[in-house]
Amino acid sequence: MRKCFLDRSVHEACPNNCKQIYGGNTLLGRRETNCLAKEKLVFFSENKVTFNVGISAFYQAHYKILEEFLSESQQNQELVSYFLYISEPQVVKEIIESFSAKTLANLFRTDYYTFLAIRESMNKEKRDKNIFKVKSYRYWTYLNFQKICNVIVYLVRESNEPELACQFLVILPSIIVSDIRDYTGFSPEEEKILYRALGDAIYELPIQSPKIYDHMLALFADDMEISIVLSTMEILIRRQEQILDLSERLIDYISKNRIDLNIQYIYSELNGLELGSANEILNQLQERQMLSASQKDLVLSFLEKGNLDILKALKIEIIR
Asked: 144 phi and psi, to 5 degrees?
């Protein structure tokens, strides 16, 4: 029976350190190492080997072997997707970041249309609007941002699927969305294709990334419908920009200082701000686990009442 260089047959699981041993020293890990990963994946899809053998081959195979395997049939792609779904995202991060933009685009296409089909079959109140919030698809959020941008470029330029490309805009940080041209090399026309693919959600983009607002106004200056709607949003966008900028400044401060100093600093930064905006910022700090619910209520109470009684509660909170 044929065995690999680590003396494992096709019916035996790959050792956990296999990938580290042969590393990047082989093209496909076959000739020099007699790698059997692809055969194990094929056998698993045919129910000829155990689950442990199949998933060990997935984890330890050179990424070129996986790309070749999944490109050969829809069934093979579904198997790779299955292993991605059931794995912890941080475990498969290295694997997916090794894949080409084309391979990732093919995987995402399948994921997205499966997501839409499943969502359509569910009650409206239970439907997830965002594919990336579904547990099975969380691995996409672990891709590095440049890799995501590479996939966006492939979907717009190569496969003409901007409706897929624009989905990734919601998981890119505001600073990258605002400078998407620097990460994609898009021309103004390609940018417009990407944003128009959002449909009505195009107007949510500057709310998510306020620094893109002025650029979008200039980009769509010749599109009367989009231009008019965007122009009516300026007050909202400027307010959102203020909220996001202040939130990030507070998060940076909180990560470096004691909680008692945090409370005082947060109050001083939010004092005088419109109460609704202050509440939104406090909610963001709580979501990022920078503040507890009681600490948020503490600051909000001080902002509402504007008296020193809060300091008594503050001392109790610190002691706790």
From this structure: -65, 155
Q: Where are the domains of the chain?
A: 1-86, 99-204, 237-319
Q: Which residue has the tokens 């509402």?
A: 304
Residues 58, 61, 67, 71, Cα dihedral to 10°: -60
Nearest to 82 by CA among 72, 92, 90: 92
Q: If DSSP codes are grouped into helix, strand and coil, which group holds residue 255? A: coil
Rounded Cα–Cα distance for residues 306 and 211 (Å)? 33
d(CA 28, CA 24): 9
pLDDT at 257: 73
Read off the pLDDT of residues 123-144 as tens digits, 9 standing for 90 and up: 666 666 789 989 899 999 999 9
List, for residues 214-258, the tens digit of each pLDDT value: 999 999 999 999 999 999 999 999 988 888 888 888 888 887 776
Phi, psi of 159 (to 5 degrees): -105, 0
Residue 147 confidence class, pLDDT cut points 50, 70, 90 = very high
Give the tokens for residue 305.
């009442």
The Cα 193–Cα 162 span in angstroms is 7
**Greater confidence, 210 or 258?**
210
- Segment 14-41 shows an average pLDDT of 72
- The C-alpha atoms of residue 319 and residue 316 are separated, in whole angstroms, by 5
Of the candidates 231, 174, 165, 227, the one whose C-alpha atom is nearest the C-alpha of residue 193 is: 165
Structure tokens at 156: 């717009």
Q: What stretches of 87-233 show up as alpha helix (H) in DSSP?
A: 89-98, 101-120, 145-153, 162-165, 174-178, 180-184, 188-196, 205-208, 213-219, 224-231
The Cα 197–Cα 192 span in angstroms is 8
